Amino acid sequence: MGRVAVIQGVVRRPEEATISVYDRGFLYGDSVFETVRTYGGKLFAFDEHLERLAESAEKMGFELPVSPAELAAETRAGIEAAGNEESYARIMITRGTGPLGLDTSLAEGPRRVILVEPLVLPPAEQYETGISAICVETVRASDAADSAKIGNYLASALALKKAKEAGAREALVVNRDGVVVEGTTSNVFAVIDGVLVTPPLDAGILAGITRKYVLLLAEEDKIEVRFDALSRQAILEVDELFLTSSIREVMPIVEVDGVPIGDGKPGEMTRHIHQRFRRHVGLGDRPPGAPTPVGQDRDVEGG
Ligand code: PLP
To answer: If you take atom 2 of ligand 1, which residue's CA is the nearest one?
Structure first.
């Protein structure tokens, strides 16, 4: 199983993959990125990810250094060189290098790095039993960048650290208004009286691509959807709760702040939506996640 880094279009082994210490991605988190994954060796929703990458760059006030088609070709070259059965790729664009100083005009032009790794899935058991989460009130750097997918995930990393220290697996990000907006690298959905409820885009969330497909599939199945912000208190009263992301797909949450959600087990609607999603991506009725003990118990980055 292989790992490679494609730096400025050149495929490199991880041990020879280096960038400048004057890169603003390193200095200031001044970068945007996408995480994409393969199903059956093919990148899923790749055009949508590239579009979101360009939008993120635009929100940050810089352009992609090469065309989306070139970025796509470089990503595919990395995936081929890595030679994994299934891969995930993290496509990063930084504002570039330059002399020290916050002034963005010091940057000498955007640079690109694509990291390709073997796809690591959550253990199957997490889908069967669900996971626990705690609510963490925090302010994310992306709030200052119109919810662009930017490189600075510090607030979420610290929220996740808190969750781990509390013995939970995930943190639900609560904003200053007391609203549960997202997971650390995922969107959030609740089920209340058979209605699918998720925060609207203007709640300051990432326009998740898995979220979009879940909403499309719900519409196909005539499941009622409501775009609503749920408070930290309200989330404890919902019937079902789940997260969505490219890597985790649809992950049930069965406990928040020590309080069981519904009956404390993954709910029917969650299972249904996940099954529909897996059929949509061509996996049929194969169960989700990596079978233990092959499944690794390290966190799977959906970011
Ligand atoms: N929200 C945040 C903050 C994320 O980092 C991610 C994952 O990258 C998502 C939501 C889910 O987005 P997607 O479904 O496009 O992977």
So the answer is: 185
Q: How does residue 64 score in pLDDT terms, banded at 50, 70 and 90?
A: very high
Distance 195 CA to ligand 1 centre (A): 22
- 192 exposure class (CB count in 10 Å sphere: 0-12, 13-18, 19+): middle
Residue with CA closest to ligand 1 atom 3 = 185
Does the beta carbon of 175 lie inside 6 Å of ligand 1? no
Is the beta carbon of 186 within 6 A of some atom in ligand 1?
yes
Residue 300 has pLDDT above 70, yes or no: no
CA 174, CA 166: separation in Å to the nearest integer? Answer: 16
Give the Cα separation of 290 and 122 in Å (integer).
Answer: 6
Rg (CA), the chain: 19
3-state secondary structure 165-179: HCCCCEEEEECCCCE
Q: How far is the CA of 99 from the centre of ligand 1 (A)?
A: 32
Whole-prediction pTM value? 0.95
For the cut 90, the answer to whether the pLDDT of residue 216 exceeds it is: yes
Over the stretch 147-178, which tens digit does the pLDDT of each residue have? 999 999 999 999 999 999 999 999 999 999 99
